Amino acid sequence: MGDEGKVRHSEASEELTAATPPGGAGQVSRPAPSVEIGATLGHFEILSLLGQGGFGEVYRARDTRLGRPVAVKLLADAFTRDAERLERFRREAMAASALNHPNICTVHDFVEAGGRHLIVMELVEGGTLHQALSEGPWPAAKVLPVALQIADALGEAHRAGILHRDIKSGNIVLTPRGQVKVLDFGLAKRLTPESPGEPTAERLTREGATLGTIAYMSPEQLLGRPLDRRSDLFSFGVVLFEMLAGRLPFEGSTAIATADAILQRY
Q1: Maximum Cα interatomic distance, the chain, rounded to a whole number of Å
Q2: 34 close to 46: Cβ distance less than 8 angstroms
Q3: Calpha distance 226→246 (Å, rounded)
């Protein structure tokens, strides 16, 4: 499959605090790539830009040591001096690398090269579920195997004590063989301690901050309340509705209207 068939990992890189619903108006222009194609960062040769998101850029690259294709996610230069964002970026790598599951995108490494911070991930072929649903709703028989794989991935993350917090159709990839891959643990929250001395509900964002994609958020997430696994299940329910109905269950002309629809109608 050519490069055009590679998943746009950038769809899993958006940080949205007030955004239009997916597919709506308000698209913003993207800046030029910050890394020259053909350049080398550490032992990774940059081959092409896969996309850009709120945290930075994702490139198709080649691991020159192992000779394998990878996806390299770079934190934007403007954020490397932001301790909170850098910590969230590092925690994304830690959270995802702790998970070994066929329906979760594998994280290979977290490195610093040339003054840039990189998450090195498996390069997944295919397209996002959001892209696939642009053609309309799916019959239940087509939804079921995809839903089961998403649920299995979430179950694995939750058993490991990790809350995803940004489950949406744009963060779910379908490979040409029908395999699901859940991406982007950039907003992940650890529900259990990594070691005995650490807190049990470690927040990876500022207290009270609301991060994620509004149309998929649980009411508790919108209100900045403490979250547990049920928040991911709410978002998963939104994805299920989207697959079966071909639209989102809560929609509005603005981000605020969408949030109001979730809070008032749920």
Answers
A1: 54
A2: no
A3: 31
Distances (CA, A) of 244 to 105, 158, 257: 25, 25, 23
Task: Tell me which residue of 53, 57, 52 sits closest to 39, measured CA to CA.
Answer: 57
Give domain 127-265's CATH number out of 3.30.420.40, 2.30.40.10, 1.10.510.10, 3.30.470.20.
1.10.510.10
Residue range(s) in the chain whose domain bears CATH number 1.10.510.10: 127-265
Question: pTM for this one?
Answer: 0.76
| Catalytic residue numbers, as ranges | 166
Q: Which CATH class is domain 3-122?
A: alpha beta
Closest of 219, 222, 230 to residue 17, by C-alpha: 222
Tokens at residue 257, please?
């209207």
What does the alpha-carbon distance between residue 165 and residue 132 come to, in Å, rounded to a whole number? 22
Which residues does residue 169 pair with via DSSP β-bridges, in sequence order? none
* Model pLDDT for residues 189-211, shown as the tens digit of each residue: 777 544 333 333 333 333 334 45
